[in-house]
Amino acid sequence: MSTSFHSRVVGQREARARLSDAVRSGRVAHAYLFSGPRGVGKTALALEFAALLLCEREGAEPCGECVNCPASLALRHPDLHLIYPLPSKKAGSTEDDEREFAAVIATQNAALAKDPYTFLRPAKAKDVRISLVRGLIHHASMKPYQARRKVLIVLQADAMNTQAQNALLKALEEPPSNAYFLLTTENEGGLLQTIRSRCQRVRLAPLSSEEVADALVKSGVAGPQAELAAAMSGGSLSHARELSRDNLEDLQRRVIAFLRAAAVCDPVELRKVTATLLDSDQMPEQTALEFIGLLLRDVALSRIARNAARHPVTFRGFEDRIDAILLAYPEADFDAAARAVDVSADYLARGYTRDFVMFALAIRLHEALGPRTKSSTKQTRLDHA
Amino acid sequence: MKFTASQSSLLAGLQPVAGIVPAKSPMPVLTHLLAEVSGNTLTVSATDLELSMETKVEVKGLKDGRALLPARKFLEEIREFPDVPITVEATESGRIKLGAEDKNYDLSGESVQNYPKVPSLEEKDMLVLERSRLRRMIGKVLFAVSRDELRPQLTGVYFKVSADEVRMVTTDGHRLVKIMQKHGGYKGEMHESIVPAKAMSTVARMCEREGDVHISFTPNQIGFRIGNTTLITKLIEGRYPNYEAVIPSENKNTLTLDLEQFHASVRRAAIVSNEISRQIRLKLRSDHLQVTVEDIEQGNEGQETVPCTYVGEPMDIGYNAGYVLDVLKQVDTPEVAFELGTPTSAGIVKPSEQEKDEDLLMLIMPVRLN
């Protein structure tokens, strides 16, 4: 393989092999849908596949050296067109979207070219605008500028409204020659069935903890921190990166404090710990809920593995506290607790006030954990936690 | 890169190319002009990734090299200079210095490596046409270009060159224009392309002065060289629909009328026609034609009689007045000739006499009368 190309895709061997086989055998489909949870490499893989489709040499990976590769990898190839959600236009603006948001797009693309795992929606971006979809279709209907093909990418494709999806559907039904559409989504259900059925599905599974930890170490995160962040990431590299910037132990402590307050259902205490839990830029409500879920999972696993060698998956180093919870709440229903976390995540997604949601969660957790044992020693241990 | 040139020649050379540079772009590098000095020639080019333009300006070359000039600021600055020799220099650090006498400006540039490769003209097997002929052909066909992006092929001009003629066709499904022109000689292979309408109108604008146009063809591009300037455009993907199949060959009813008179009648009728359907009715009889119009919604109506020569079955046929006017505008003979079939089939419109070496045919679909 060439020396100047280093794949930035972490893991996903199977999907990568499948895509390069398609190119090698000349059986590239006209549309691909990359789906999977956040941070598993949908965008990274789509962008690398785009570079492969535009590469002159058509090897197993982009060669990195031909006239097309450097430009396509830097996202400034004339035959590579990329759209994603953008903020709403200012009222009364007559500029087309691409011009109005030229600066936003330029910044986003540069960040994306530098690191495909850090893609975030531009601030206040909601939809993939129909005008951008139309522009994309226009590019598809033109002959290529310099490569043999044109690659048209829609990131977060589920953010297209129905009208925009229908516009794209027309192009997918009768794809112009040499046009290849790549869509990414975390939510396949947000796409019309008719769009999904016209795409080759590339489903990306969460990465293994080893793959995530490895990638973190390569980007300069210290070994133990990387492992911890990887274990907590749920197989999402972008999530792991966010986590690896934090003092994870401190976050874990805050989550345990919340669970403890929830268990006793003390409103004053609860108010305090909720504020502490969410008092961090890196700790959005959804992440906090994920942590609570992970803690409950560790406790539940710990109960199943009773007396066997117990290793919390996520909350390593907190074994004694997990034990304390188990001993204090022998009748705890962890299924119900997990459901409570899911329900809360759903409420948050629907825009309920976060303090209210967290309080409601605490009450549900209190019920799920069941009565506390009377043993004073055990109680003391939990209180110390 | 360093050169000196007079303000006026620099401005005249740069302005047309700067015209295709987008003011803002998600690819900021595209808001620049690519300048290259080699000997005493300055080549300025730009692309918006669809349309590319290049022009050559005679300068006093001081140092060969390439640089990107920030198109808007550079041009605005040049425009405000008096007509004196201006020296332009790109420094190692990528800055653009321009100055004359005691005026010195220093603009920030962009790395020339990031600029996309501007396509160049394929020099072999070029078609040579007189500028006025090309301009005339483009002028005749552009009105019938479709704006429907769902059928991208129809948004362009079908452009075909073969051993003895060059042909352009446009259609939007309601009308069609086909114009053919004999040319002096073309040694290349037969070529078919679908050229975006925007590029065609730019070419027509560039053909204002006398001279020849050299046209070159590649599978993905078409290029026009007009004087010192070259324009290259990406083509539209796909095949042009089989337009010959819709041109009727057996329209037996022929109608000939005075262009001016008929044009005026249709203009008058169009004013009171229904704003949406724009329908007018032509009642064809052997020695006269009656133009009638009725707009029930607004309660307007009118009719007038136009003398004509009509050979065929008497019939009533309806048209969209706007379409008829568009077609009549393209006729420049004193009389216009229609060849009609039935009230529901396409009618052919031609000038009563063709220009030398030219063949113009227009097609117009009637509307169903209610």
How does this model look, in words?
The complex is a heterodimer of chains A (385) and B (370). By secondary structure, chain A is an alpha/beta fold. Chain A contains 18 helices and seven strands. Chain A has helices spanning 13-24, 42-54, 69-73, 97-100, 102-114, 130-141, 162-173, 193-196, 209-218, 223-232, 237-244, 248-264, 267-278, 285-304, 319-328, 334-349, 354-369, 376-384, and strands at residues 31-35, 80-83, 86-87, 125-127, 150-154, 179-185, 200-203. In chain A, helix 9 (209-218) packs across helix 10 (223-232), helix 9 (209-218) packs across helix 11 and helix 14 crosses helix 15 (319-328). Chain B folds into three domains: 2-114, DNA Polymerase III, subunit A, domain 2 (DNA Polymerase III, Chain A, domain 2, Roll), CATH 3.10.150.10; 127-244, DNA Polymerase III, subunit A, domain 2 (DNA Polymerase III, Chain A, domain 2, Roll); 247-364, DNA Polymerase III, Chain A, domain 2 (Roll). Chain B is built from six helices and 25 strands. Chain B has helices at 7-18, 71-80, 131-141, 197-206, 259-272, 321-329; strands spanning 2-6, 32-38, 41-47, 51-58, 60-63, 65-70, 85-90, 95-100, 103-108, 127-130, 156-161, 165-171, 175-182, 191-196, 212-217, 221-226, 229-234, 253-258, 279-284, 288-295, 300-311, 315-320, 335-340, 347-351, 358-364. The model of chain B has no long low-confidence stretch (mean pLDDT 93). The chains are: A alpha/beta (385), B alpha+beta (370).
Q: Tags for this entry?
A:
heterodimer, A: 385 residues, alpha/beta, Rossmann fold, Zinc Finger, Delta Prime, domain 3, 3 domains, 5-stranded parallel β-sheet, two-stranded antiparallel ribbon, 8% strand, B: 370 residues, alpha+beta, DNA Polymerase III, Chain A, domain 2, 12-stranded antiparallel β-sheet, 8-stranded antiparallel β-sheet, 6 helices, 25 strands, elongated
